[in-house]
Amino acid sequence: MTNENKHSDCSNMANQGMNDASSARKGSITHVIFDMDGLLLGINTEKFYTEVQEIILARYNKNFDWSLKAKMMGKKAIEAARVFVEETGISDSLTAEDFLEEREEMLQKMFPTSDLMPGASRLIHHLHENGIPICVATGTHTRHFDLKTQRHSELFSLMHHIIRGDDPEVKQGKPSPDIFLAAANRFEGGPVDPLRILVFEDAPSGVLAAKNAGMSVVMIPDARLDSTYHKVADQVLKSLLDFSPADWGLPPFENASTKLN
User: Fold this and answer.
1) What is the biggest distance separating any 2 CA atoms in the chain, rounded to whole angstroms?
2) Which of 35, 222, 234, 242 is flagged as catalytic?
3) Could you give the C-alpha distances from 81 to 17, 36, 69, 121, 207, in angstroms and in order?
4) Distance, CA of 87 to CA of 82 (rounded, Å)
5) 35 catalytic per annotation
6) 37 noted as active-site residue
7) Which of 39, 30, 74 minimizes the C-alpha distance to 194?
8) Cα separation of 110 and 104, whole Å?
9) CB contact set of 244 (below 8 Å; sequence gap of 6+)
10) Are 200 and 32 in contact, with CB atoms under 8 Å apart?
11) Cβ(237)–Cβ(243) under 8 Å?
């Protein structure tokens, strides 16, 4: 989800109820893992990638569409770059490596302006204050992570740990479960049983990665993403503002004002 206005008509959004398997886990969730791009950091972060990739493709008289974006989301940079040049048919003119180098120059100037998604701060503070161990598992490499989060250091300091895409334990990007299994291993007293972990994701490949790791997943997809990608998730919501911790046996928001902030 990309803006607060989308929350105002949430009643029009088709919310997927939790399936039998995920409902059976209600009350067993003890730890939470967050993706970052498009989930905690949103509007600008994803928009930046899209804008840069549109500029590059325009040189070849090609368009960057959502079917291509969906295939790239959540993957490691080099893996997404290969999808980009191969799916668009420009691999003979632009290598994946050259694409990344060109994209990097433009992104360096954009990332420091990244904004938080609606509901992100509220949920993270709530879980932290109630003693629920939380972490971030993002395909973003350290150099980009530092740029994207520099305005939000206080919020990210609440995380027990942060796993980035260039972590040595992450051999393969999403939809491989590597990054979520690495995250589970590093909680205090870890590894944590995947059945006790709830993951928040926006990307189809990230949802698959979490399910491949044996974890439950709440998906907060961009409204433009084809709904066929929603099917794998245990729950689909329009925004983090719509998440009810009590649905998963987590401490509920104490009052209405907390819930809406």
Assistant:
1) 58
2) 35
3) 35, 19, 11, 31, 20
4) 8
5) yes
6) yes
7) 30
8) 10
9) 252, 253
10) yes
11) yes
Over residues 100-121, the pLDDT tens digits come to: 999 988 888 888 888 899 999 9
* Residue 233 tokens, joined: 């998730």
Q: In this predicted model, what pLDDT tens digit does every residue of 120-175 receive, in sequence order? A: 999 999 999 999 999 999 998 898 899 899 899 999 999 999 999 999 999 998 99
The residue type found at 45 is T
Query: Of residues 9, 20, 37, 242, which has the active-site annotation?
Result: 37
pTM: 0.75
Length of the chain: 261
Gap between the Cα atoms of 154 and 180, Å rounded: 23
Phi, psi (degrees; rounded to nearest 5) at 102: -70, -40
Q: Burial of 74 by CB count in 10 Å (0-12 exposed, 13-18 middle, 19+ buried)? A: buried
DSSP 175-241: TSSHHHHHHHHTSTTPPPPGGGEEEEE-SHHHHHHHHHTT-EEEE---TTS-GGGGTTSSEE-S-GG
Q: How many Cα neighbours within 13 Å face the side chain of 252? A: 6
What is the end-to-end Cα distance of the chain in Å, rounded? 17
Compute CA distances 224 → 8, 238, 260, whole Å: 17, 12, 24
| CB neighbour list of residue 114: distance below 8 Å, 6 or more residues apart | 41, 44, 45, 48, 147, 148, 149, 151, 152
Q: Is 85 exposed, middle or buried (0-12, 13-18, 19+ CB in 10 A)?
A: buried
* Cα distances (Å, whole numbers) of residue 222 to 81, 84, 225: 21, 20, 5
